[in-house]
Every structure is written in structure tokens, then in C-alpha cells.
Design brief:
The protein is of the alpha/beta class. Helix 4 packs parallel to helix 5. The strands form 3 sheets. A 6-stranded parallel beta sheet has the order 9-8-7-10-11-12, sandwiched between helices. The protein has a 4-stranded parallel beta sheet with strand order 2-1-3-4. Strands 5-6 form a two-stranded parallel ribbon. This is Outer membrane murein-binding lipoprotein Lpp. Pfam families: PS_pyruv_trans.
């Protein structure tokens, strides 16, 4: 039976409690990673294939074991070509360079502004080249997410690049149907919003100027049944642990404290299983926001969604898949933010997205065929039916809301975590105190040495002055004065030059 090592946090059939997700960071800081890794897992789940998640562990020293135990290393990625990901990219490159098995990369992308400028990527070009070269020695091509990344890699000298989009959009294979439940959105509409907190240091991005925060506040006032679909690890920690913002009387413009209306009013949920995330969006009338996978999850649920693009990673996917979108930079002049969701909904056209999905799906299937991957969409394959059937038998977590101090089954973990964190803090403090003492002793010794050195310097200076005096005294002796006088007389007489 072929065995595939898949870059993912965990198997979609592996139910875990939220504390385990937090403790092990099984979402790699963002639940959006679940969608594309689970989609690839589903596509490759044939009866004769075993898929093993690597839990995001990348260790070059494991190369020999991987070569012996697996037949391929499949690597779904997102915006990996960015400065903040270079350490992980280097680790992947170092591992891949030691592999003798095929390596298949799905949906990798660069990260830039919506103008597609790449000057800020110049410092990491060597690292990107190292990764691409390592992959292409073990693969016929690299699957990228869109036009920007294709152009970027072409500019670095790589032509074996195929635009295949993000695998998440093919979670349901060839099928992708979005249904409008209403012609317009009134105050009773059930909405879902997704939010990015910062730009990730992307040049030209306007995320972080408060516009999206104001939009969320305005939308909540107009549409009370608004659900914030959180995605980041820090969101999960905030929901699971809570904070002291209420007692401290503090707040935040973004939903980063429990005093924010979206959390205070129980309007926030986080799902770390793709299927429960998608299911939760089925009864929403409309989804919108800056998170590409937050909106992809809605589309997979059949719910209309519009992406507010603020960087290349979202824009190139929207352009490739014909997902309705607006540039965040174009919203600066909006005077009625509360009415914006309704206008986005009315303006959204999903016809091109639906009409072109079959062709894009065929392109992905051809990509998998060229890379020698067995998949559920081959002739005679079940299209993922067995995967879905098995998934229905798994008791997945229903999603995380704001913890209010009740016994939700996680009290034991919270107490154990606090006890362990306290013990670790004490251990770090003890180690720090020891280090301070050691450094203090070294400083004292150095100060003593400095004083000794200063004394030696003064002694040398005194000796030098005495030598100068002695030399002056020697130069002024009667014998030397007589010799100099005789020399001058002889030179005048021409007897000495």
C-alpha cells in the first residue's frame, strides 16, 4: 500500500479537544490551513493509499526514515514566499534536498500588496530559489495559487510552474454551487464576517488602519445576527481562556479582547475542523471579510461570500477562481459602512466562478496525474464518498465559543496548565537568578581586572616619562655637545659632508 506523508496538522478523522489544538498548535496559527490540507487529504484518500500527517514537523534528520517509510511527500502550502516564513521554508528545503521520493507542492504563493510589487521579496530570493530547485529535482512542476506567484517564479528563472489555485476550492470536487436565499439583505439577515488584524508587514496594505474594525462595528449595528468566524490561534486562546479586560476596564477596536461587542455578545465562534466550519456557514445568508479561507468555507457551504482583498495572496486566488471581491483600498471613501454588506451581496456575481469551476478542476486533476498521485477523481474513483462517509462517523468538536467560567470539560486542563505554567515560570526565574549571579560575579571580576589594568597603565606611563628624561639627559652630556660642535666645524671646513 502506498504511503504518503502529508504536510498537515492532523488527520481530519482525529477528533481533538481545543486544549490540544492550543498546546500543539495543530492549526499552524490559522484554521485556514485546515481547508487546503483537508482538501488534499480527501483527494488522495483512495482505498489503496495510507496518508500520514506530519503534524507540521519538518526535521532534515528524518530524511532517511521518510525515504524508507513513504512513497511521496505532499506539501500543500499557502503564502510561503514571504520574509516571515523563511525559517520554515529553509527547513523544508533542507529536508527535501535529502529526500529520494517524489515531492508534490500544491498551491504555494508569494505575499505582496495588491499592486503585485516584489521589491520587499528581494532579500529572500535565494531561499525561494533553493526551495524551488529542491522541489523541481523531485517533481515535474510546482503548483502555485495564481498569476502573481507564477509571474514571480518565472522572474526567478523557473518555467515549470502551474497555476492550480488553492486545493480548498475543490473540497467538493467538480461541484461548487452557491445559492442566494434572498434578493436583498435586511436587518434580520444572518451574516458571517471574517477579519484580519494586521497586514503581515505587506507594503501598501491598508489593513491596520481601522477600516475593517469600523466595518465590523457598523455591520453588527445594522445586522444583529452577525457571527464573527475567528480563525487564529490567539482567537482560540482568547475564547478558551478569556481575559481580564472587563475587570480592567480595557477594550480594543478589533475583536482582541472579551469586552469587544462580538465577544461580549457571544457573536464569535471558531471551528478547527473543516467539516464543522463549513456546516456552521450553511445557514448564513452571506459571508464577507478579508480572510480568503473564511470566505472559501462559506462558498463550500453554498453561502454567497465576497472577499475584501488587501494583498496578493487573496487577490490572485479571487482572480483565478472568479470569486467576487473588492479591494480594501477602494472602501476608504465608503460613507455608509453599515450598508456595505447589503451592497456587496447585491453586486456579487457568482456565474463566472461556477461556470469555470469544471475547467479549473480538470486542470487540478491533470496536475495530480502528471505527478503520479493516485486520487479519488480518477476514472472509477468514488470522488471522496468513502472519505465523507468515514468523516460522518467521527464525533468532532462542535466549535469554540466564549468560555464564561463554567465546567465545560476543560477545567482540569486549565488548572493543570496554570500549575505547569507557574512551575515553569518559577524554574525560569530560578535559572534567571542563577544567571544573574554568575554574570554579577563575572562583572565583579572584570571590574577588578580593569582596576589592575588601569594601575599597570599608569605605571607604564610613569616609566615612559622617566625614560624620556633620561634620554634628554644623555643628549645633553659634555661629550655629546663637544662631538656635535666638532662636526659642525669640520663640515664648514669641507672636511665632512
Amino acid at each position: 500500500m502506498p504511503r504518503i506523508l502529508l504536510r498537515s496538522g492532523r488527520s481530519p478523522f482525529d477528533p481533538v479537544p481545543p486544549e490540544q489544538v492550543i498546546q500543539q498548535n495543530l492549526i499552524a496559527t490559522n484554521t485556514g490551513n485546515l481547508l487546503f490540507s483537508d482538501a488534499v487529504h480527501k483527494m488522495l484518500s483512495t482505498p489503496d493509499t495510507e496518508i500520514v500527517p506530519n503534524r507540521y514537523k519538518v526535521d532534515p534528520s528524518d530524511a532517511d526514515r521518510i525515504n524508507d517509510e513513504y512513497d511521496a511527500f505532499v506539501v500543500p502550502l499557502a503564502n510561503a514566499f514571504r520574509p516571515s516564513f523563511t525559517r520554515h521554508l529553509d527547513d523544508l528545503s533542507a529536508l527535501i534536498e535529502k529526500l529520494r521520493i517524489p515531492v508534490v507542492v500544491f498551491g504555494v504563493g508569494g505575499q505582496a500588496g495588491t499592486d503585485y510589487g516584489t521589491d520587499h521579496l528581494a532579500p529572500i530570493e535565494d531561499k525561494v530559489r533553493r526551495f524551488c530547485s529542491a522541489v523541481l529535482e523531485r517533481s515535474p512542476s510546482i503548483g502555485v495559487r495564481g498569476e502573481f506567484t507564477e509571474r514571480y517564479l518565472n522572474g526567478l528563472g523557473y518555467s515549470d510552474v502551474e497555476v492550480i489555485g488553492c486545493p480548498s476550492m475543490f473540497m467538493h470536487g467538480r461541484e461548487l454551487r452557491v445559492d442566494r436565499r434572498t434578493d436583498t439583505l435586511d436587518a434580520s439577515a444572518r451574516l458571517a464576517i471574517n477579519v484580519s488584524y494586521d497586514s503581515g508587514n505587506i507594503p501598501g496594505s491598508v489593513i491596520g488602519d481601522g477600516l475593517i474594525d469600523r466595518l465590523a462595528d457598523a455591520a453588527l449595528r445594522r445586522h444583529p445576527d452577525l457571527l464573527y468566524m475567528a480563525q487564529e490561534l490567539q482567537d482560540l486562546e482568547l475564547l478558551y481562556w478569556g481575559d481580564v479586560s472587563e475587570a480592567a476596564g480595557t477594550s480594543s477596536a478589533a475583536p482582541l479582547t472579551r469586552t469587544h461587542p462580538l465577544l461580549r455578545e457571544e457573536r464569535t465562534r471558531l471551528y478547527y475542523d473543516s467539516s464543522t466550519w463549513i456546516d456552521a456557514l450553511r445557514d448564513r445568508d452571506f459571508a464577507f471579510g478579508t480572510r480568503i479561507h473564511g470566505n472559501v468555507a462559506a462558498l463550500l457551504a453554498g453561502t454567497p461570500a465576497v472577499v475584501l482583498c488587501h494583498d496578493s495572496r487573496t487577490l490572485e486566488l479571487c482572480r483565478y477562481f472568479d470569486i467576487p471581491h473588492r479591494l480594501v483600498s477602494d472602501l476608504a471613501d465608503e460613507t455608509d459602512l453599515a450598508g456595505l454588506p447589503a451592497r456587496l451581496y447585491e453586486e456579487a456575481d457568482f456565474s463566472a466562478m461556477s461556470a469555470g469551476h469544471g475547467e479549473r478542476f480538470d486542470r487540478l486533476v491533470s496536475f495530480m496525474d502528471r505527478h503520479g498521485l493516485d486520487h479519488v477523481h480518477r476514472p472509477g474513483g468514488d470522488g471522496g464518498a468513502a472519505f465523507e462517509s468515514e468523516l460522518k462517523r467521527v464525533d468532532l468538536h462542535p466549535g469554540v465559543g466564549s468560555w464564561r467560567g463554567d465546567d465545560d470539560g476543560g477545567l482540569g486542563y486549565r488548572l493543570a496548565w496554570l500549575r505547569q505554567a507557574n512551575a515553569q515560570a518559577k524554574a525560569r526565574q530560578t535559572a534567571s537568578d542563577k544567571r544573574v549571579r554568575e554574570l554579577s560575579a563575572k562583572v565583579t571580576a572584570l571590574e577588578k581586572k580593569a582596576k589592575e589594568t588601569a594601575g599597570l597603565v599608569k605605571s607604564v606611563e610613569r616609566t615612559a616619562k622617566r625614560l624620556e628624561k633620561l634620554e634628554a639627559q644623555v643628549r645633553s652630556t659634555p661629550y655629546l655637545r663637544l662631538r656635535r660642535l666638532a662636526g659642525r666645524v669640520l663640515r664648514r671646513l669641507g672636511l665632512r659632508r
